[in-house]
Amino acid sequence: MNDSKTISRPHRSGGSIARDVIINVLLILYTMTVIIPLAFMLLNSFKTNQEFFADFWALPSSLNFIHYQEAIENTGIIRMFGNTIIIVLAALALNIVTSAMIAYVIARSGSKISDPMYKFFLFGMLTPGVVTLIPLFLIARTIHLYNTRTILILVYAGFEMSFSVYVFTGFFKTLPGSLEEAAYIDGASRYQTFWKILFPLSKPAVVTVGVFNFIEYWSDYLLAMTLVSDESKKTVSLGVMKLQVANAVRTEWGQLFAVCVLVIIPVLLIYIIFQRQLTGGLTAGAVKG
Amino acid sequence: MKKFIALLLAVLMLTMVLASCGAGSTSSASSSAASSASSTSSASSKSSASSAASSSSAASGTTKDFSGKTLDVLYMVGGQGQMADPICEKLKSVYSGLTTTVVYDHKAGDIMRDRTLAGNPPDVFDVNSTTYDHLAAIDEGVVEPLDFLYDTPCVDDSSKTLKDILNFSTMNFGAKDGKYYLMPDCIYAAGVWYDAKMFKDNGWKVPTTWDEFYALGETAKAAGKSLLLYSTKYGGEYFFDYWFMPLLLSLDPTGQTYIDIQNMKEGAWTEPAAKKAFELTEDLIKKGYIDTTSGTLEISETQMQFCKGNTLFYSCGSWLEAEMAGNWPDGFELTFLPFPKQSASDPSFIMDSSVVSGVTAASKNKDIAAEYYRYMLSDPETTKKVVQTTQNGLPIKDFAKNYGSLLSNSVNSIWTAIGTKGSVTVDDELEHNYSTLYDFITDKSAALNSGSITGDDFAQAMEAFCASLRKDSDVTIRAYDSTALLDAIKSAKG
Amino acid sequence: METDIKTTEAAAAAAETTPLKKKRTLGQRQKSRFILVFSLPALLLYFLFRFLPSIMGLAISLFNWKGVSMNMKFVGLNNYVKLFQDETFYKALGNHLYIYVLNTVIVFAFALVLAILLTNSKMKGRNFYRVMVFFPSVIPAVIVNVLWMSVYNPSIGILNAVLGLFGIAGHNWLGDEALVRNSILFVMVWLSTGFYMVLFMAAIMNIPQDIYEAAKIDGCSVFRQTFAITIPLMWEQIRTALVFFIVTSCGVGFNVVYMLTKGGPNKASEILPTYMYLLSFGGQSKFGYAMAVATVIMVLTTALALLILRVTKRETYEM
User: What is the pTM of this model?
Assistant: First the structure.
């Protein structure tokens, strides 16, 4: 791993000030396109409807939580939060454990099926997910799990397998073989070696996969839309969609913004906490190639 | 700092999970009653055998026992509101031991499809025909023909049966081989609307002929307004059903062009009246009389332009008043415009469209479903509540006479127009019969508004598209039964 | 495990020389069981819920299915025949290629340039920009939709308001046939650029300083350094990123178009995935036909990904 002190920076030559100015301008513009819509959304979630239509850009007169109340009442978003958390955590656990297991086999067993299996998973990275909706619905129906939280857990776990296997495989390949040798000498079985030594060591990969997949699962709406129809089992993205569809009929921007703020908060928190691991881990994967 | 955030997150998540477990099967039913967003009302409480053995049930001769059964009802979210609620409440008070579940969902069409495929369809369903193919469902045996409820006696007069009071001429959608499959829950009338107050304030005359209508174009422009607005984002409905069709019918009041189009007859779209309808609309666009920008927005925003008075006329259905409740400025007098005629002796054509419900063939509660309709249509107490909720029509004879007073002014204005001699109600089945037409017309209406095609192009495109439908072996061409329409035209003139 | 293999392989080799004794050793059986136990869960989940659905679509495309009941009629390749005569399909294909090709070129060019410039400079705001610019890629799709709806909205919209400050007239960004494609493209670029910029930055940081030093001593300009050193040494990462991008941008494009315009107006922003959705859940009830479109998408994307992999193959430089 590179020591940050030797991170390369091509030597600056003439025109560096111009370069700095250009990047600053570009990046400031980009940043503004990120911040302004988000701020707009946040501010206007606190304005009453009259305030909003009077002047979109004024600061709200006070922190009016009425839209949040409405949003919570009209969408059952609290229950959706609960559902989503259960589903996402379960799917993450399932995905991480099973992908780590198979990645270990692929990276270390030297078996003849390792390579075909790896390629099998890569196929999943080559095909877009949108084409799977209808068949997934049929599969869910066949195994009698349509419209359950379980099916979402299973589908989420299976859906993002390719990326997880890719990251874990790359990671396990970097670990020295001496670890296992030492374990075998001490009489550990293969299972013990994995669970007690190698898996705990793979924390960076776990975090990378975990955070990346968390965001995928939290944001998903297509799979949830296709596989679940009961109100009581819906996820947060569907709650936002519900209001968004309603907004087409009766303009209620305030409520819509409020529910978006609620839904984006967990993502924001995860992003702030794990931001380094997210960007770092992904790039580690990329560096391995 | 990060640790704190992590802790906060964990606590929040735990709270959510606990809250959701606690909420369990109860939903936010009570609190969402006031809103128009979708809600789930899980009315699964057993009703006590109260003195609800009221006079109405005594008169209806209730001998059935539905205890332990559940009626499963699925409704779309729309202008018809939560109309299943008063009916289900009544059913539960009459039949002790009966439970009902009612779901209102924006995606009711998808839910219907998914549940049917999963083998667990609802008993009674009412879904949007733009996302659910009712006719295919009928063809494939998903929907039960309504015959099973014809002999049910009416609540208010047990000498009559439902068959006696149903107005079958409103039930064309879902009629197949002489049987009716779909029951209109809420009949809208549609066409062009205006603000009577605006006209009075400005001293404008409400147009009765096309020339008068056209002349208002310049007047509108001078006042900084547009003459006409229709949605092109939902053009298959708003442009086509509520503007184009009335225009077409006014141009050929014999109804023949309309009938030819419904029959998918070759050359129908290039018949003189059809071509003229396209050309006249194109002319309005070229003159700048039509607000082409607002038509591309979401419905609520399009309608806001009308509420704000930026356009004189807006083509829509009679759900408009209820849908924009709270947005109407004081004094706005929403009124229906009888479509400008070519000559005073022509019939006045008013489009109607309905939200329809049906009973699934797989339902094990068809007898309960029969009671559902019985109370919806023939129980003065419940029917009144239904009409107050939907604020629109029901498929029963003498509807306007018996229930017209319950309707709001704007809706009353249109049902009055319907009740006036010389008026003919037409329900447009074209897009129901050929589901791909809706999209095609939507696209072309947007193109016409933006000027990328001419009226003539539009006519030719429709002709070509219908020709391809005729050639497509997967598309069934359904013959249009024109007797009802022709009779109505005759009696309107006579 | 490596040493384990060697010993058991040696044993196996020894066993094989006596054809009658093809017995597997205890070690081998245990190992096989281990491999089985550890592979099966992931394989099952993946197969059932990702792999199988991807290819089932092909089977469904050979039927006509209205989606209201399980009634499916076999029609062979009829759906494909119809597809290749379908005007809307070609329009969607055209939009699809326009948006996706431009999206790829713009995102990668932009991300590379920003990454190179940003890694080089000693600016203080570097981390701040990284965090800000990466954020769009983690925002849930439904919220992205609400954000951009409020940006592009002609009356309440942010964009028209900002332009108004400079005295530029507002436009109907999503309702105008001529503008909508580019409006969509802009959102897609916004979503992806930050992500790939960060990715590339890390790749660049892995290039050892000394190479640049050496180049500078040889009188190599910064500009040439970029093309002679930076890009070739990042090539593998760029390649992987490219393939990843081609596949994921399919879903990204679907989200953006479906939520912002649903393909309108007049199919000006219709792309293949949204057309597929329209044909099935969107109300036309032609599920078999929709799966034919899905198959085309799959074939197109996979072929493109494989092609890129082949075309960009280069010698890797040992560092």
Answer: 0.81
